[in-house]
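Just wondering, does anyone understand these tokens?
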Amino acid sequence: MKHLLQISLILLLSLSANAQDNIFWSADFWKQNPDIATIEAKIKEGNSPTALNSRGFDAVSYAILNKVSNASIKYLLELPGNEVNKLTHDKRTYIFWAANRGNVALLDYLFKKGANPKVFDNRLYSPIMFAARAGLENTAVYDILIKNGVDPAYANPKGINALLVLAGTAKDWSILDYFIKKGLPIDHTDKTGKNAVDYAAVTGNKKIMTELIRKGVAYKDINKDNTNLFHQAASSSRAGDNKLEFFKYLNGLELDPLQKDQENKNILHYLAKNNSHPENLDYFFSRKVDIDAIDNHGNSVLLYAASHNNLPVVNFVLDQSQSINHTNKAGESALSLAVQNNSSEIVAILLENGAHTNIVSQDQRTLLGHLIAGYSARSKEDFYKKWELLKAKNLNFKAKQGNGNTLLHLAAEKEDLNLIDALLQEGVDINAQNDEGVTLLHKISLTAKDSKMLKELVKRGADPSIKTLFEETAYDMARENELLKNENIQFLKS
């Protein structure tokens, strides 16, 4: 009873934790392998041991991932709010993290406390598949999961099973052999027809691929999505980009470099989107792959590069391509995609090479509209570099976007006062109404987490008396916002 009272007191103290200052969300804290006394002290200082951060991680998941002592982890698991089947990041319970880190003793403890083995994360991976994703080769981890009811042969709705995952991550054949002996067929394919050789190609796992081919697994087949091994190797991977040496190895398997997938993308489209090495694009360009080919969405190789890739790749494509101002079916150019998704250096090089700045996409967004859509507080500095590059081209900040929206309407969802102030300085009307009569104040009244920004907007001249086409004021909309139900919003009454 005394212990329970101590826990209750600690948790009450932790309720005052400031979400931004919660030390239990810091990897650096857990890397020190804190003991129970240290954890208790931090809880008493106001840090919550149960709260989930914006990404869905909590103290227990971070402790497991950073291989903190099981004694400390078990202490955390005793706290109300850290139940054994609690959902964390990507809908993963604690057995996922324990399996991922190969913590057999903790898995045993979690199952004894009632951990549910029939769980799947948001990708519909089982705990076994999640351990396989980490390339774990300790069969004791899989043994305890299987013993407690996790099906080793489970395949998710996409047809992916542990064997396919391990084909990309395993360092040694023995772990694949372990699952083959558990009944998983060596030639299993997912719903698109990709087999273990395809999955090995994604990560460039030449050792496993060579063994699979030696054992008779097909490698020249065209998959249901019309891809071959070149496409798999050019796809993105958590393990990193495949290098030229691996593509040369694949070329020795007599694959067709001109193969196009079901969306009419060739290997250069894939590389431009996912691979950061220009020499790989050069390798296939020299083999007559069309660098100005257009896929079914109207995207050129340059559009993919400008949206996602680095300066060396973009420069290579620019040197070879004749389509800098081509637009896709959405009316987006390389420049508009770079403005929204990529860095200021990519925007600058496109402008230097003659990219048109009068592009308006099908949804009636100008380049500045794309700029606002790509705003992130994490990359403010680069955002404003792009801002200045476009401003130097005399673009009109007051130009209407789709549905009569201004740039302020587009900025509303970002809920960043600094961004709003920057647009106001460019002369954008704070009280402009879109085609439905909605103003910036109306929009933020519907989504605001508290009344602070609304008060700031009113200070800047936002008029609460303006009504939409449906005769609604900002006050009416704020009353519909559940997050404002305990806030004083009388200042919005006109």
